[in-house]
Amino acid sequence: MATFNKRSLYTACQTYVQQRIDTCQAAIQAAQESANSETKSSAGDKYETGRAMAQNERDRNAVQLHEAKKLLAELERIDPEKPCDAVWPGALVRTNIGQFYVGISAGKLAIDGAEYFAVSAAAPIAAALSGKRAGEQATFNGKQIRIEAVV
Hints:
Residues 34-60 are annotated as: Disordered. This is 3-oxoacyl-ACP synthase. It comes from Hymenobacter oligotrophus. By secondary structure, this protein is of the alpha+beta class. The protein has two domains: 3-76; 92-150, no CATH class. The chain contains three helices and six strands. α1 (3-37) runs antiparallel to α2. It starts with a helix and ends with a strand. The model has no long low-confidence stretch (mean pLDDT 90).
C-alpha cells in the first residue's frame, strides 16, 4: 500500500465525479432540447405535458449536477500528497476487512490489481475509523476492525 496508490485513487475519484458532471450536463441539454422542440398539436394538453415532463427531467438532472459539483468541491479539499498517520479525509486505510480511501463516496475502485472502497468521511465506516491509527481497532456493525496501515 503505497502513496502512489493514493494519487491513483484520488485521480479515479476525480474521473468518477467528472463523469457524473458530464452525464448530468448532457441530460440537462437533452431535456432542454426536448422541451424546445415540443410543438403545439391538436391534442391540446399534449404540448404542455411534454414540456412539463422535459422541465421535470431537466430539474432532476440539475439537482444531480449540483450534488456532483459538491462532491468535486469535497474532493478538491483533499491533498493527495499529504501523508496521513490517522484516518481522516485523504487517508488510505488497510484493515482486516478491506482497503478504504477516505474522500468521496465513489464505491469500489480497482487500482493496480487491488480493490479499494472510496468512501466519504461521513460514511459510517469512515466515522467508525476516524482518528484511529495503525494498530488500533474500531467497531463497525458489531464487528471488530483492525487497522493495519494508514498512508
